[in-house]
Amino acid sequence: MVLGRTFELAAKEHYMGGDIAGFLHLDIGQEGFSVAAMKAFDKGDVFTTYREHVMAIARGMDPKDVMAELFGKAAGISRGRGGSMHLFDPSHFFYGGDAIVGGQIPNAVGCAYARKYQGREDGVMVVFGDGATNGGAFFESINNASTQKLPLLFLCENNGYAIGTKITRVAPFEKQAKKAEPYMITREVDGMDALAVYESVREAQSLIQDGHGPVFLEAMTCRYEGHSVADANTYRSKEEMQICKGKDSIDRMEQLLLSQYGITPDAIKTIQKRAQNCVDEAVAFAASAAEPELAELYEDIFAERKNHAVS
Q1: Closest Cα partner for 144 from 154, 158, 156?
Q2: pTM of the model
Q3: What are the residues whose beta carbons fall under 8 Å from the beta carbon of 303, sequence distance 6 or more?
Q4: 46: how many CB neighbours lie within 10 A of its CB?
Q5: Nearest Cα residue to 7 out of 287, 289, 278
Q6: In b/e form, how buried is each residue of 58-89, taking b as 16+ CB within 10 angstroms?
Q7: CB 42 within 8 A of CB 93
């Protein structure tokens, strides 16, 4: 979690400095949710939104490779082609970074159907924001997943805002799990409590692996930044942000470690120092890495066609 926040703060700094182009959606404030979800869903396929830097690192990607991708370098996890919004690593069963709001949800349904057809029981998890639940693709997906009893965990990261629009302005209620109640088992968890998120995701994964069909888990979270770095976050009051930051998942975990697990303040400082060193190394690696060659523009455009003899 500390590594994730340190990474995001560095990404913001270098975006403002011109080293990172395009859009940059930061996960600051939601690290507890992102890390716990990825660690809990230890097996199976994962599809995510474009706010996925911390999730990618928690899933096992090297921070150097992730930062290099943000810098648009050839050493990046997507070879510099995707940037911030398109981190992708099949070796970690991570198919995240979909730039279309809710676009990853039908993809996850297809993957879950394939896994069921293959007889694999690991399951699939798809992470999306509250705003995505207003799209038609979401309703088609929960319907298909329910009728086919697919091993799919719908994990809604509800931070209360769809870009800059408060969710209650565009939905009849704040908690979006109500939309899925007629279709599947639904659960709710405090998304700012990393341990609670971990336990809830583990429980949901067990349900889908045991053949109960899809599960909808809603985590109530809070992001500290605007929708992207380009968003000044002026639509939220200082009072709202104070309440939001008062639930900080890293602070809560630190207090828990200090009070109940015998972790010393020096150990906490060591964690923070290690995280900063790791991020500093990632930035240095990304800054010195080579730009993609122009020839890369013409690679992986078409799938190779294989000729099959017709008998």
Answers
A1: 154
A2: 0.93
A3: none
A4: 27
A5: 278
A6: bbebbbbbbbbbbbbbebbbbbbbbbbbbbbb
A7: no
- CA dist 86 and 84 (Å) reads 6
Q: Which helix H or strand E contains 157, and what residues bound it? A: strand 152-158
For the record, the structure tokens of 66 come out as 């992730």
The per-residue pLDDT for 300 is 84
Cα(10)–Cα(16) distance, integer angstroms: 10
- Which of 283, 297, 290, 301 is closest to 70 using CA atoms? 283
Burial letters 225-235, b for 16+ CB under 10 A, else e: bbbbbeeeeee
Task: Enter the tokens of residue 65.
Answer: 């490779």
pLDDT digits (tens, 9 = 90+) for 263-303: 999 999 999 999 999 999 999 999 999 999 998 888 888 88
Q: Residue 303: what are its φ and ψ, rounded to 5°?
A: -75, 145
- Write out pLDDT tens, residues 125-152: 999 999 999 999 999 999 999 999 999 9
185-227 pLDDT per residue, tens? 999 999 999 999 999 999 999 999 999 999 999 999 999 999 9
* Cβ atoms of 145 and 137 closer than 8 Å: no
Strand 165-166 relative to strand 161-162: parallel, antiparallel, unpaired? antiparallel
3-state helix, strand, coil in the chain (%, to 5): 50, 10, 40
What residue has token string 């940059």? Answer: 24
Helices (H), the chain: 2-16, 31-40, 53-59, 63-70, 104-118, 136-147, 167-170, 194-209, 238-245, 249-260, 265-288
Which spans in 136-288 are helix H? 136-147, 167-170, 194-209, 238-245, 249-260, 265-288
Query: Residue-wise over 179-199: b if at least 16 C-beta within 10 A, else e?
Result: bbeebbbbbebbbbbbebbbe
Residue pair 7/26 in contact by the 8 Å Cβ criterion: no
| Neighbouring-strand partners of residue 129 | 157
